[in-house]
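agent> Task received from the user: take the single chain below, predict its 3D structure, and emit structure tokens. No templates, no multimer pairing.
agent> Plan: (1) validate residues, (2) run structure prediction, (3) serialize to tokens, (4) report one or two observations.
agent> Step 1 OK, no nonstandard residues flagged.
tool_call: predict_structure(input=
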Amino acid sequence: MHGRNHPPEIADKQEVTATTNPLGLRGLGECGNPGLSGAIANAVCDAFRDLGVGITALPVTPRRVWEAIQQARRHAAEKGPFASLTPSTARSR
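)
tool_result: status=success, residues=93
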């Protein structure tokens, strides 16, 4: 557009400091940590791998971790104590 074909531009700035920290800084979206939730879920799954825990929903909360542990225990009880052993893992133990 040429200068005569659009309305005048008005630039304005309004500073509003945050009250949640001593510097009054505000964040700029969440673009810096998009993979953080998945990394935390993977860390939890790795920590409880021997129990067969799988986290399939985010956010990872203590309640969801507890429920996943309980579900893995129920599943293991139904399958028996040696259900997770395949011929290859049985030889390595």
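agent> Step 4: summary for the user.
The chain has three helices and no strands.
agent> Done.
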